[in-house]
């Protein structure tokens, strides 16, 4: 056989390969420049950045980094490592790393069975994302009042339960914790799912059990705005394989996570259309480390708050925030409620003058999406299209539902949100800082209030 004939013969039949090797060689898709762009975000000086560039530019990066969860070539991707750390820290059987806390909530509500014609009871105080995720799941949020912990009041839940109710969504508020045992008692009595929104209290506990592990689902925002996280990320915890499957189906494009991803359903209800809330390798690389730091971070915050609270005196006109678990909460905010808004305004201004960072809503007319009546994307009862499912969904109306929201629905939340004073705390305060802050608070309260050893205590 001639060479020409051999070249025409298929390689499968013993002929020459048409492509023996590739001569073209380019630069990695994700290489040194991308690495340096990340290094710049860490705040290194120009001198340090120059040194870093010199150190890395001579390395052969091959095809470059792959920053998605799948096909990274690693035995354990960074996302998988993040999920493993979460399971180990929280003692949860299943964990999913996601692109945001809102993505975690949306996935959890869908997995919990929220849909057209259903309702989810949410607390009147807490960021809008919780209620918004209910609507994204095609359910309708119903607001429950809060107690002096600023969390969902377990005693106010039952009056909101209807045949349409499928879940409760207790929310942690700025480091504090809800009364989860009492909330779970109500949920189990009425056979309701529980989706915990722990975005603002990652690592907090109630009776030595992590928030996020009481309910059917625990959702966390792992982000730069929270005590754990570096950019935009989320975490979902759950107890059962089916819950994990359903949450992943929503978060992973309708079932891309499955061992044989394009197969038909393995059981009824396994597959449905989903979206993409996957966490990236870049985010997970940071958040795996952040999550490992969480216990120490929480302890520092809690120690600082307890140190300050232990030195505060009690006053007739002051109601400290109820702490459902003083030892377990994160504690990056110290709150109390003066008797009137007018008194609160004087205390607020005096604390600021003493060098104590604090805030008070008072009579500020500006809207705040942390209180139910200002959540305009919801309270205006509008949707992206005129049909407006779920709020105007025929299925919901046929079941007797009507979405109406107005100020005054939750009077305790209305009152406490306006009167409350919040003092921001820092985990790195030393003993002297704590003494000075406590002394400053006592100094101001003594000037405007009446000492009373029988008044509500800070613990």
Structure characterization notes:
This protein is α/β, with parallel strands linked by helices and 459 residues long. It folds into 3 domains: 29-66, no CATH class; 78-290 and 387-400, Aspartate Aminotransferase, domain 2 (3-Layer(aba) Sandwich), CATH 3.40.640; 294-367 and 413-448, Alpha-Beta Complex (Aspartate Aminotransferase, domain 1), CATH 3.90.1150. The chain contains 14 helices and 13 strands. The chain has helices spanning 3-8, 32-40, 46-56, 78-90, 101-111, 129-136, 180-189, 241-251, 281-309, 341-353, 376-379, 394-398, 411-419, 431-448; strands at 94-98, 119-123, 140-144, 165-168, 193-197, 205-206, 209-210, 217-221, 234-238, 318-320, 333-338, 358-360, 421-424. The strands form 3 sheets. The chain has a 7-stranded mixed β-sheet, sandwiched between helices. Strands 10-11-13-12 form a 4-stranded antiparallel β-sheet, sandwiched between helices. A two-stranded antiparallel sheet has the order 6-7. Helix 6 (129-136) links the parallel strand 2 (119-123) and strand 3. The protein is globular. The N and C termini lie far apart (94 Å).
Averaging pLDDT over every residue, what do you get?
94
Identify the CATH homologous superfamily of the largest domain. Type I PLP-dependent aspartate aminotransferase-like (Major domain)
Q: Indicate the low-confidence ranges by residue numbers.
A: none
Strand line-up of the largest beta sheet? 1-9-8-5-4-2-3
Terminus-to-terminus distance: 94 Å
Structural class: alpha/beta
Overall form: globular
Report the helical percentage. 25-40%
Give the strand tally: 13
Radius of gyration from the alpha-carbon trace, in angstroms: 27 Å
Sheet with most strands: 7 strands, mixed
Return the CATH architecture of the largest domain. Answer: 3-Layer(aba) Sandwich
- The CATH topology of the largest domain is given as Aspartate Aminotransferase, domain 2
